UniProtKB/TrEMBL annotation, chains A, B:
The keyword Transcription applies. GO terms for molecular function: DNA binding. It comes from Nocardioides kongjuensis. It comes from the Bacteria. The lineage of its organism: Bacteria, Bacillati, Actinomycetota, Actinomycetes, Propionibacteriales. Residues 21-119 form the HTH hxlR-type domain. This is DNA-binding HxlR family transcriptional regulator.
Length: 124, 124
DNA sequence: CAGAATCCATGAGGATACTG
DNA sequence: CAGTATCCTCATGGATTCTG
């Protein structure tokens, strides 16, 4: 298993990404507290604003709006508004977003599998 | 490839992790700005404090200390101090940390591959 | 070298209220 | 329903100084 985990520095000889490069920016978007949850939530299929609020428990409207805008600007999330009253908007992963999800989900699974053992069943 | 990306909710029927559960806590540790960089940096082998500072460009001493402590408390990073003068301390991944790295590195690779196209070659 | 401790600024992020 | 706007708090995180 070593050949897939110890070669990442070949791509980034300058360190773990030079500071202030595009990788760092994208990393912050993708790895942000809410970005991860929104992206993974959307792997379940297109969802509406209120769905996402329910899925990503604890997210505020401000953060949801901000997160969705960032991910949309990055081309990871697609926003589809229907001009009806009351308004209806669906969010979904773009092909690029789905591609990202394929490497993101294994990480989330790992966290889910190990969280209780590492952190403890309840934070209290 | 669908069967591996659309079933994550089976494990977490309550949403994308209920708020304030152990998964959220661990997720924040692992996905934190500097946590990722330190963990991935250590996939390259054991490293000293000053190595890590150089690898994770832009990290402050405070953040490096804080990050390492969290990751060590989580059992992801091993700290080995040699009682010599001047002090020498080596950090490395624990088996658990290596396990995590195997799902983390593909994500980092993805970010490295797509960052320029998504964000733009220079943030300026 | 490998940190600990302190101070301080910024902005991430929450609560609330309002709108189309 | 799907947001926007505003205010405000507190924690992230940088800079600096000190120590074993």
């Amino acid at each position: 298993m070593a050949e897939s985990t110890d070669t990442i520095f070949e791509q980034f000889p300058g360190g773990v990404f030079p500071a202030a490069c595009s990788s760092r920016v994208l990393l912050d978007h993708v790895m942000s507290k809410w970005g991860v949850l929104v992206l993974v939530s959307l792997t379940d299929g297109p969802q509406r604003w209120s769905d996402l609020r329910r899925r990503a428990q604890g997210i505020s409207e401000k953060m949801l709006a901000q997160t969705l805008k960032t991910l949309e600007a990055d081309g990871l999330v697609h926003r589809e508004q229907q001009p009806v009253m009351p308004p209806r908007v669906d969010y979904s992963l773009t092909p690029l977003g789905e591609d990202l999800a394929e490497v993101l989900v294994p990480l989330l699974r790992w966290v889910g599998r190990n969280a209780d053992a590492i952190i403890g069943p309840a934070t209290t």
